[in-house]
Design a protein that fits this description.
With about 280 residues, this protein is an alpha/beta fold. It has 9 helices and 10 strands.
């Protein structure tokens, strides 16, 4: 049995996200705990956090995954953006702890021309500072691989290893593997051999124990095209056969699978969740 869900809205009140996940047939789900397009957010009050925790207990769903907002760039050479990114990362870790959310996914940012190694070093420092500033050890920060776009610092397994290797605090940081991003970066997930190769490399370089969440998305672009555009499961370049290979791989089988797929006239969130179950054979 797979553990599959999607990203759901917190509109109205954060605890309402739990019911929305249930309506879509989710076992697990992902949220933004705040407006993802701004730097500032209202503090979570105890009542909202308690309502979310109570809704989670009643639902039987989980684990919940929180995603960082879009604006932070922990690889940025701009000191103002960098400091705001560190502060927001620490704040989001604290929000997760208050809500009882075990995983926070973060993008690794873009180096803006200062070079990959320098950008990666800035990410390492940013994460180490945020983990200390957050003052909580109940939340694991998950580094998400990127699609190979210009100036990215976390595209390959080797990139993720270099960043993880510099982060202090055993058990505080893991990996969120995005299938669309991996395919766009050049990892061919259409065949059993290609799927074996990427998870074998993850195991050899990082260790599969660090792999905690899968962002399960098809890709609108070509293999190695660097295009971060998600598509419905099985309707993009990875295709249904590719997802069968992914979903039957032992590295993936027991992990939370989060679809970040479109909602349009072809399929909605519930349709993608159902398609995952179909391809997984459950």
């Amino acid at each position: 049995m797979v553990l599959v869900g999607c990203h759901v809205s917190i509109a109205g009140s954060i605890d309402l996200a739990v019911g929305r996940a249930g309506e879509r047939g989710c076992d697990t789900f992902q949220i933004f705990s705040r407006n993802p397009r701004g730097w500032k957010a209202k503090d979570l009050d105890a009542g909202s956090a308690d309502a979310f925790r109570a809704a989670m207990r009643a639902s039987g769903l989980g684990p919940v995954v929180d995603h960082m907002p879009y604006l932070p760039n922990p690889a940025s050479p701009d000191d103002e953006i960098y400091e705001k990114s560190v502060a927001l990362l620490a704040a989001e870790l604290r929000r997760c702890a208050l809500l009882g959310i075990p995983y926070l996914v973060t993008h690794l940012g873009h180096h803006r021309g200062i070079g990959t190694e320098v950008g990666q070093a800035r990410v390492i420092t940013a994460v180490n500072r945020a983990l200390v500033d957050a003052g909580t050890e109940s939340v694991m920060l998950l580094l998400e691989n990127t699609a190979g776009e210009k100036n990215s610092v976390g595209t390959t397994v080797a990139d993720l290893f270099r960043i993880l290797d510099g982060i202090e605090g055993e058990g505080r940081v893991g990996i969120c593997f995005d299938t669309c991003h991996a395919f766009a970066a050049g990892y061919d997930l259409r065949t059993a051999e290609g799927v074996d190769a990427v998870f074998g490399e993850l195991d050899d370089r990082i260790g599969l124990s660090h792999l905690r969440v899968i962002h399960l998305n098809d890709c609108k672009g070509d293999l190695g095209g660097g295009l971060d555009r998600h598509e419905h499961i099985g309707l993009g370049s990875i295709g249904e056969e590719g997802f069968r290979h992914i979903l039957h791989h032992p590295a993936v089988r027991d992990l939370p699978l989060i679809c970040e797929t479109p909602v349009d006239e072809r399929r909605d969130d519930a349709g993608n969740v159902a398609k995952v179950r179909e391809l997984a054979g459950t």
